[in-house]
Amino acid sequence: MIFHSEHDLKFAFAIALKENNPDFQIRLERPVDIEMVDRNNKKSVVRAPIDILIIDKDGNTIPIELKYKTKKANINLDGENYLLAEHSATDSGRFSFRKDIYRIENYKSKYSNCKVGYVFILTNDEAYSKNNVFQKDNIDKYFSFHHGGLINRLDKSWNYESLDETKYTFDKNDNTWNNIQSKKHWSCNKEYFYKLDLLQEYVVDWKEYSKIGDSVFKYCLIKVDMQ
Length: 227
Description:
Elements: H1 6-20, E1 25-37, E2 43-55, E3 61-69, E4 73-77, E5 80-84, H2 90-110, E6 117-123, H3 126-130, E7 150-151, E8 168-171, E9 176-179, E10 202-203, E11 206-212, E12 215-224
Parallel strand pairs: 3-6
Antiparallel strand pairs: 1-2, 2-3, 4-5, 6-12, 7-10, 8-9, 11-12
């Protein structure tokens, strides 16, 4: 099975949940308030949607965040053509995956009727599952979630030691890196500047989802069930 986009995946996921659990109520893009903290310890409440929110017959909620990261591919399956986008930007993709875990933990801590939540990613880009960027001097070194890896509880931030200090300088006033035009490095802006300390650690386990022609799709599922 394959999907055109993240929205296509989300819709199919919701349908499968409902078919297998008729008592469930399913909400897509349910907006919730999440408390975020930036790297200057400034707190803010951000209103953002949970991709899928399940409400069971007892009123308990199960939040699910989904990611669908693809490499460019042109695939024909059962007479339907799938033109998959080239998402690249695996550095921001790794950060966003950790942010989803943070958001599910935050939601669970806030709502007593939530006992468990999930973060799910499906991709045909082996850079996520195979590349242990923790062993490399990449900017996203500390956000690696390769197979068998450990997602640490404490956020070690971006690996700014990898920046060229002849091109970037550190501003002690707001803890940001700026280039020679005093423009902030992209990781010091907006959502990429959040501090994402978690409540627990997670072991990463990637599994094969499907193989279609030369494209191999793998998934990783993180269960958030800390007490």
